[in-house]
Design goal:
binds zinc ion; GTP-binding; magnesium; alpha/beta; binds guanosine-5'-diphosphate; Rossmann fold; Four Helix Bundle (Hemerythrin (Met), subunit A)
Amino acid sequence: MEFDTIAAIATPMGEGGIAIIRVSGPEAIAVVDKLYRGKKKLSTVDSHTINYGHLIDPQTGERIEEVMVSVMRAPRTYTREDVVEVNCHGGLVSVKRVLQYILKYGARLAEPGEFTKRAFLNGRLDLSQAEAVIDLIRAKTDRAMTIAMQQVEGRLSKLIKRLRQDLIETLAHIEVTIDYPEHDVEEVTQQFLQEKCEKVKAEINRLLTTAEQGKILREGLKTAIIGRPNVGKSSLLNALVHENKAIVTDIPGTTRDVIEEYVNVRGVPLQLIDTAGIRETEDVVERIGVERSRQVLEEADLILLVLNIAEPLTEEDEALLQLAKGMKTIMIANKTDLEPRLDTEALQARYPDIPLIKTSIKEEQGLDELEQAIADLYFSGAIAAGDMTYVSNSRHIALLNEAKQAIDDALAGLEMGVPVDVVQIDIQKAWEKLGEIIGDNVSESLIDQLFSQFCLGK
Ligand code: GDP
Ligand code: ZN
């Protein structure tokens, strides 16, 4: 396939330091050469070298920028095309100006995701790897990043290919049975098919169970901070946000009645929700506070239940404890700097499965322990990044479910003794659905839709 030459700013907008403009396509080197003045013409430098020089306006001779230019010739590049990366120091204005020159002298502005789309279309990445690049761009924490990286390296693809291989063997076996019906192989066939289908189904199930974790890692654990008024919910939220790297997100941070913040606590992405706002602004009666908490609780992955250690348990505390029971909860006995009136030992004895952490947010005590408890809850062997294949992409999850359904149909057919050529159709369908995950059988429009999700310059 023959492509034109595209260009875009490849570094985040508005950030200081160096900005990179990426140019890819058959004319990439020639286009930048029209503007570049250095020791050598870029067309004569070795591949995979960085070259110092200046960009000048070819008409006026005016210097535009001092630059370092990387030249990478096809095919050992991200897009498998000639790629030139122009590193400029200047701020946003000068970077945009350089881009304008590059566009004026022969490149076209890349569409979002077009570099990665080319990597895919030129056979450099398969579809699930390309999608992982989307996830990578959006990854909110280091751990989510690791998982996305593994996918880029093709872990999921490898597994899917293996499953498809199993299905192909099954299909081949059926072909033989159909072609040589005189052989009395029905019995053997039945068992062989059943075993293969069960095996593939088990693998798909395993992948699907990782899907939920994958989703959590990408979007953050919905973490509800609950407790009656004045126990320190807002203080806790603020402390967690200040202590930890707040996660940049395009999701609006503040809604009318609840406050939400995204933070990364020891590798666990949390979407913190303070349910207090509604009470403090509207001063509603206690019962409504519990009602509201109940709603948030239903959606929460993790509950931080804040208590005031300086006061005995109240009825509302008890009500909240009852609500939180059976969910992933951490009790926080706050205000340890004050005279204690809450029997934390008795409380822990009543709820032995719920960790209880003592804090004084005012004096910055106990926050480390709290963060450790949060991390323990989620990484105590439950999620061991590095040795699992995660599925976290909703398109993959949907396709896995469809493939599983087809396998189930095949198994049901085998059970009922329907002719193998009918079973064959279901198995083939499963094979196709798995294929769609790695980009076999995908229609052009699906590809366009997927790649348009990318940021510009990737
Ligand atoms: P919320 O209503 O649960 O959100 O509670 P706030 O976070 O608004 O805190 C209520 C009051 O308790 C504020 O005056 C805080 O400064 C105070 N507070 C919060 N944490 C502590 C603590 O650890 N010790 C003490 N002594 N006061 C605290
Ligand atoms: Zn508050």
